[in-house]
Amino acid sequence: MKNFSSQTKREFLKRMAATVSAGMVVGLPKMSLAAGETIKIGFLAPLTGPVAAWGKPGLDGCQIWAERINAAGGISINGESHPVEFIGYDNEYDPAKARAGASKLVIEDGVKFVMMLGGDPWPGAQPVADRTGMLFSTLLPSDLGPDTTTLIAPAEVHPIYNVTGVQWLAENHPELKSAVICAQDDALGIPSVATYLAAFEASGIANEDPILFDAATTDFAPIVSRMISLNTDIICLDTCYTEFVHPLVEQLFQQGYEGTIISCTADFYQQMIEKTSAEFMEGFVFQFPDFDDPALEQDFINFDDPAGFFSEYNSRHPGEWGAVSWEYASIMDLWKWAAEKANSVEPGDVLASMLESGQGEHAFGTADWWGKDLFGIDHALVGNWPVVVIKGGKARIQDYKWIPGWYDEFGDILKKYFTQYNLMWDQR
Amino acid sequence: MAFIGLLTLVLIALPHGLSYSQREILVVLTINILVVSSYRLLTLTGEWSLGHVVMMGVGAYASALYSKEWGVPVPISMIIGALTAGLVAWGLSFPLFRMKGFYFLIGSFAAGEIIRLLWKRFRDPFGGPKGIKRIDPFPDIDLGFIRIDFFDPVNYYYFTLIIVVLCLVILWRIEKSLIGLTFHAVHWQDKLAESAGVNVRDYRTLALVISSTFAGLAGTLLAHYIGTVNPNGFDIEQMVFVLTWAIVGGTTTLYGPIIGCITLTALNEIVLRELGLEQGRPLIYGLILIVSVLFMPKGLEDVVKRGVAWAQLQIVKERTNGV
Amino acid sequence: MQTGLNALFAAAYLSLVAVGLVLIFGVMGVINFAHGELFMLGAYVVVALYTNLQMPFVLVVAIGLIFVGLVGILMEFTMFHPLRDNPLGGLVASIGFLMVIQASITIGFGVRMEHVPPVTQDVIILSEKVRLPVQRLFVILSAFVCLTALWLFLKKTKFGWALRASAQDPEAAMLQGISTRTVSIIAMFIGAALAGVAGSVTAPVISVSPVIGHSVIVSAFIVIIVGGIGSLEGAVLASVTYAFIHTVITTFIDGVIADIVGLSLMLLVLIIKPTGMFGTQDRV
User: Fold this and answer.
1) Taking the mean position of all CA atoms in its chain, how far away is CA A354?
2) Do C112 and A49 touch (CB under 8 A)?
C-alpha cells in the first residue's frame, strides 16, 4: 500500500467531502471542536452473525464507559468538556462491509477514532484508514504491519500475553514436563499455538504436535480422546472460543483427565465448575480476571473502578461478560488519556500523543509500545499481564508478569515459531 | 430507445445522489448483479447450483494469486482468473452432470464446499482460514490530463458498470442465440431435445462453464477492489443470498434477478441500517423473504410485467377515448 | 473403543435430525433449510425451562419435543402449505424462517453461549480407557427410543401407512382417499419434533449458542444423501457410518480432512447413484 503524505491525505479528505456534500448534507471534517460539541467514536465490529460475541458485548461495555465518563464531565480538551458518543456499524465480519462501514463512520459521521475487532474485516477497512489518516484500533495485533501507520493494538496483545501463564506454571510447578495444545484452525487459534509452543519450549516443557480442529466442530469427545492418549502433564486449550472451551473441559473431566489445564480464556468458569467439579477445576490457569478481583484495586491499574464497571455490566447484560466487555472500554481510557494530554481529538495528534514517550497507559499498568520484531511496527501496547488461577472455585490473580522481560530473554524462540507458522509480518 | 437513454443517464448520475458509504455499497451491488445474472444463465437449463459463489471465489483467489505470486498485471490476471473459474467448472461438470435436479443442487454444494475447505486447509498458497490479504488494487489510469484513481468508489463503480453491462449484453445475446434456445429446450423437454440429436449434457456443461466464468469475473472485480479474500466470504450463507435474490426477483427474464438483487440489497444495507436496527436486521430481512415468496410467488419481475401491461392498457384506453 | 462410543453419540443426535429432514422432504418435497434451527430451538427450550426455571429435565425434553413439533406445524400452515406447488419458494421461505428464528433467539437470549447445568455427572467406567458419561448414554437411548417409536408408528399404524404412501406417490395416495393435508401436518410435526428432541437432549453436552444449527444441518445433508434420499432406514444407517468415519478421522488425522472426506463420500454416492430413489423426476 502506498504511503500518503499528510498533504495528500488532507486534499483527499477535502475532495471526498466536497463530492459527498453534493449529494447529502455532510460538511468537511471539522478541524476544531465547537464548545461542548459531542465527540463521536466509531465502533466497527460484528454485531450480528457467528462472530457477534466478539463485538456486541464490547459495544455494550463502551455504552457504560460513555455514561460514566459523561456523568463525570466528559473529555476535557483545552479546558472545554465534551461528551462522548459511540456510533456502531455492523460489519458482519465481512471485509467489503467493513470498507463501507469505515467510509460511513469516517466521512459521513465524522468520528474521531474507530475501534475494530480486527481479523478478516481489517484489510477491507485499511485503504480507508490509509487515505484518511483516521486512527483505528484492533484487538488482534496480527493485523499490524509496517504499513499500518494509523492502526494500534492497545488493549490485548493477543496472543503474546499467553507466555505469562506458562511462565507462572513453570515457576510454581516445575514437575510438569510435557504439554499438548489443541486449537481451532483460524486467525485466533494459530498465532496462539505458535506462542504457546514457544512459551513451553522456553520453560523447558516438551511439546507434542498441536491438534487443530475446524471451527465448525460440535462434538469434542474425539479430540479429547486423542489428547488424553498422548499422556502429557499439561493440556493447553490455546485461545479456543468459549463455545469450545466448555465442552473440551467437560470432556476432559468425563474422560478422566487428571493433569493440569492451561487456557487463554475461561469465560463463565463457574458454569464449567458446575459441569465438572471444583476439585477438577482447581489450579486451572488462564489470563482473564474477573473485574471484582482485589488485585485490580492496586495503584498501577489504570482501569477506573473495575469492580463498579463489572457489577454495572452484569446487572445490565447478565451472562454476557467476557474479555471484550472491558477491552474496548479500556482502549477508550487510553484514547482519553492521550487526547486530553494533546488537547486535541484529531487522529494524528492523538496518535502522536499516545506514542510520545514510548509508553502508554494500559489497563494493567503503564506499558511499552512494542512489536517491531514481530509485527514490523511498534504499535502494540505490551506490559503487565495477569496470571489467573482458579482456587477454591474462584478465579484470582496470582501474579502480574512483565511481557517485554520475557521477550528480551526468549524472543528468538517466539520468532522461530512465528516463522514456522508464517506469522511474521514479512511473511504475510 | 428513450428508455435506454434514460436508464443510462440514471446509472451515470446515480452515485452522485448517494452518500460516500452508499457508493461503496453500490460498487458491491453492481458486482453482485453480475453474480446473480450469470447464475440465471445456468438456471435456464433447469439446474440450480449451490456452488456458484464458490466459482466466484475461484476467480477471486486465482486472480489474486496470479497478480501477487507471479506478478501478472492486474487487468490480465482478472481475465485469466475468470477463465480459471470456467476451467474448474468444466472439470467439475464431469461428476456433477451425472446428477440432475435436487441431486445436482446437493452435489454442487458438496463440490463447492470441498473447494472451500481446500482453501482453508492449504495455507500455501491459499493462506488458510485468513485467506489472502494485500491483493494489488486495480491500477490507476494516468492519462496526463486526468488521473483515474480506482480507490474512489465512483470511479470503480463506472468501471464495474461498463464491465457488467458488457457482460449482461453478452449473456443476453447468448440467451437469444441458438445456444440459448437449446438451453430452454434442455430444461423443458430434455428427452425430446435428446431425441432430436441435442447432446443435453454438453449444453448443460456449456451453461455451467459460461456462468462460472462470469461469476469468476465478478469475483476478480471484488478481490481487486476490497484487497482481500477469505474462505468465509464464499460460504453457503453468501450463496443463500444469491439464491434469494434470484428467486425473489424471478428468473424468467433477464431483469428479474437484477431487480431482486437491487431491492433486497437496498432494503438490507440501506433501509434497515438507517432504521438503526442491529440485532433485528436479519429478523426483518427473513420476514421480507417469507412474505415476498408467499405473496409474489412469480417474483418481482411478474409485478413489473403486470405494471407495464397495466400502463400499456391505460395508454391504449386513452388513445381510443381520444378518437 | 472410546472412539466407537464417541461415534455412537454423534450418530445418535445426527440420525434424529437427518430422519426428520428426510421425512419432511419425502412428504412435502421441500428442503427445509431451517431444520438446523429447529435443533437449536430444542436446545433453547432447555435453556429457558431447565436452566432458568429449573423444571425437571425429562419433562423439559418432552416440552421441547412438543413445542418444536408445533413450530413445525406453524411452518406447514404459514409457508409450506401455501407454497406446496413451489418447492423453490418453500426453500427461500425456510431460509427466511431460519433468519427469523436465529435473530429472535439472539434478541431474547444474547449472542453469547448459554449455560446448561449437567443433569448428572455419573460416568460409566467400562475400562480404564473407556468411559461413557451417563448424559451421553441418555442421548443415545433417546435416539433409540424415538427412532423405534417412529418405526413402529410408520409400520404398524394406519397413519404411518398413509404417510409412507404419500411420501412415495402423493397422487396415488390421494386417489386412495388419503388426506395429504393431514399427512403433511403430521409429517411436519414429527420431523420438527425429532430435531427439537435432538437439540433438547444434547443441550447439556454441547455449547448452546444461536448459531449451532449451521454445523448440524451440513452433516445432516451429507447423511441423507449418502443414505439415499427418502429412505428413513438409509438415513439412520448413513448417520452411523458417517459419524464413525468422521470421528475416526478427527481423532487420528484432523477435523478439516474429516469434513473433506465426508463431502467427498457424498459426491461419490451421488456420482454412482445419481438420481437416487425418485428416478428421473425432478424434485426441485
Assistant:
1) 17
2) no
